[in-house]
Amino acid sequence: MKKKYSLCLYYVLISLLFTLESVVYIGDPGDQFEFTKMANKFSFFEFALFRYKTWSSRLLIESITMFLSAHYLIFKFFLFAGMIIFFYSLNELLFNNTKDYRIKYITPIFFLVSFPSVFFTSAGLIATMTNYLFPMISFVVGCYLLKLSNKWFIISSVPFLIFACMQEQFTVFAFLLAIYISFRNLVIKKEKLSLNFIPLVTCSILGLASAILSPGSKIRVSLETKTWYPGFDKLSIFTKVAKGFLETNRVLFLSTELSVIFLILLLFVFVSLTKKLWRVTFISGSLLYILLTNKLGVPSILSALSRLIDIQNSRNNMVYFNWFENLFPLFFYTFILLLLAYITFKSFSDYEKGVDAVVILAIGYISRMTVSLSPTLYASQLRTFTPLVFSLLILSILLIKEEIDNLNVIKDCEVLVK
């Protein structure tokens, strides 16, 4: 019981630290100032319908953004309380059967590394957090309630899942996760599908339908095309996906704006060394070396990618796209992603855990790739990487769990030998 209280106090302290770090940016220019003006013109639900018809399918997310933009103190409380609940729910989702409380102290630290507060400032702190961080928190809480397998908890999960699935990227995340769980249980394990997943499947499908059918989404794409990406509507779907693929991997591997990628590679090196997976050690160590040398400005294979981007930017033509010219980055990034999938799978002793980890990583990546269909591809900045970084956060925690399990096995073997 004492350990449980200590862990809860730890959640409170880390949540307070993150909240205090975040409010440093609360006065920076952002969308919250426009939302504050709208708060004087619309009621809560009236604004949700207005935005659904004229701008976005996010409904209540839009209304809550408007409300919190006009109430800074309430926003700070929501952020603080939400982080406490998030840490607890995520740990219970991943470690509900573990008796070792020490591993649960890792999650908040890894969150701070993966999601520094500046990550959520590109559209203003309040607007960005309400549209990206809060849906992520809501998604985790909803999944945790589903896992409890109690009728009332399952019912309670619905509002959280509805809110999460009003955000397009987490709708895709939830939908793909539901498909994978259904396939794994029905086809691979030959088990009956639990009724617990019905809310997840239903909410994700409704979220996808809402995003596609929303009249506001079509208006928004039209306006943002003129503002951010003239000629975007003339690009083929294949070109849009290719551009999204290149931009996603540019941020991941070339500009290295996401510190979590270094954390993941370090964990791969650490886990593979203790498990004597020398091939994984070599691959992850090589990738880490390439990224670090590029970060330090030392010439490497990534220098050619930087040069190609400079050439393309000098044209000042966002519509132009030459497939032959981009063969090298397309091939190189695909190769790197395949290597990451391989070392992820090999880092887990259990086959099923390895597959689960790769799928979680793929789901986060695909969810990020949905921004390829938006004219704000190059303007949305880091916030649209939230589902991918979330997947990387989960992977980093699972790697630590795998390492601890491996060390426990070694310890048990040593005891038996003695």
Automatic annotation (TrEMBL):
Positions of transmembrane segments: 7-27, 64-88, 109-134, 154-181, 193-213, 251-274, 286-306, 326-345, 357-378, 384-400
One of the record's GO molecular function terms = transferase activity
Q: Does the keyword Transmembrane helix apply?
A: yes
Keywords, alphabetical: Membrane, Transferase, Transmembrane, Transmembrane helix
The keyword Membrane is annotated on this UniProt entry:
yes
User: This chain belongs to which protein, by name?
Assistant: Glucosyltransferase
Origin species, per record, is Streptococcus thermophilus
